[in-house]
Amino acid sequence: MPIPAYTVHCTGNERIAASVHELRFRRPADFNFAPGQFVLFSVPLSTDAADLQPRAYSIASAPEEADLRFVIKLKEGGRASTWVEQQLRQGADVQMQGPLGMFCFDTQWPGNALFLCTGAGIAPFRSMILHALQAGYPRRIDLVMGCPTQRHLFWQGELAALAQQYPQFHFHTILSEPEGEWQGMRGFVQDAVPTAVPDYRERSIYVCGNPFMTGVVKDLALSAWGIPKERFHMEGYI
After folding, report:
1. Does 221 lie in the same domain as 117?
2. What's the pLDDT score for residue 1?
3. Helix residue ranges per DSSP H, the chain
4. How many domains does the chain have?
5. What CA–CA distance (Å, rounded) separates 159 from 129?
6. Is the dihedral of CA 200, 202, 208, 213 positive or negative?
7. Phi, psi torsion values for 221, nearest 5 degrees
8. What pTM value is reported for the model?
9. CA 20 to mean position of chain CA atoms
10. What is the CATH number of the domain that holds 16?
């Protein structure tokens, strides 16, 4: 069965952190997706607009939201990074295919949930968590976001506000190379878990981010933490 294709209209392209852009597109009326799914954008080569290649990005919007929101991690010399920084402008039309993927939040599991991410890996989690909370999900959710420095952080105010609105949601930030007088947690994502989430061994765990982090957390979770495979869910990116 062919993947559904759409032409989407860009309504925003903003650099929101040291190496991250946020993109917004007008959502087609017939585009439906599950939280955690991704799309493929047709990304042109900077020197040849006819040379298109697909690039996968998780949808950060919840299904209830009117627009489609994405966060793009910039990679020096990367095709998509060049496109986002130099070519994609508000008002442009972009070819998109999707939705795709099976990385979804099992809200029927009776225990609490733990989400671990680095940088742009937070995208599918924003969709999953916002949708679950708005639907009345009653159990505790902890989200741990790791970044190198304060300059790499984004959505902090939005996530803090969400935690104020929903008492079952708890948000934690940890920096591996903080600058100045950082008062928060220091280290890597996995370092925050035993302190921030004392019952982490009893949780269902969702992980998304750079391959090194996801690999380390997978090894820890399935061995040292004793998490059964059916309670561990992972999606990586490059």
Report:
1. yes
2. 72
3. 79-82, 123-134, 156-165, 189-196, 211-219
4. 2
5. 10
6. positive
7. -60, -45
8. 0.95
9. 12
10. 2.40.30.10
Q: Give the tens place of pLDDT for each residue, 163-208.
A: 999 999 999 999 999 998 899 999 999 999 999 999 999 999 999 9
Q: Encoding tokens for residue 223? A: 């061995």
Closest CA to 179 of 147, 154, 209, 155: 147
Residues 6 or more apart whose CB falls under 8 angstroms from that of 147 comprise 17, 118, 119, 153, 173, 175, 176
Residue 107 maps to a domain: no
Range of the structural domain that residue 34 is part of: 5-100
Residues 6+ away with beta carbon under 8 Å from 221: 205, 207, 227, 232
H helix count then E strand count, the chain: 5, 12
Residue 194 and residue 225: Cα distance in Å, rounded? 10
For residue range 54-76, what is the model confidence (pLDDT) as tens digits? 999 999 999 999 999 999 999 99
What distance in Å separates the CA atoms of residue 188 and residue 171, rounded to the nearest whole number?
15
Q: Which of 126, 178, 114, 182 is nearest to 152 (CA)?
A: 178
Sheet holding 232-236, edge to edge: 185-186, 169-175, 141-147, 113-118, 204-209, 232-236
Whether the upstream peptide bond of residue 63 has omega within 30° of 0, thus cis, is no
Class of residue 183 by CB neighbours under 10 A (exposed 0-12, middle 13-18, buried 19+): exposed
Q: Which amino acid is at 157?
A: G
Residues 148 and 225 in one domain: yes
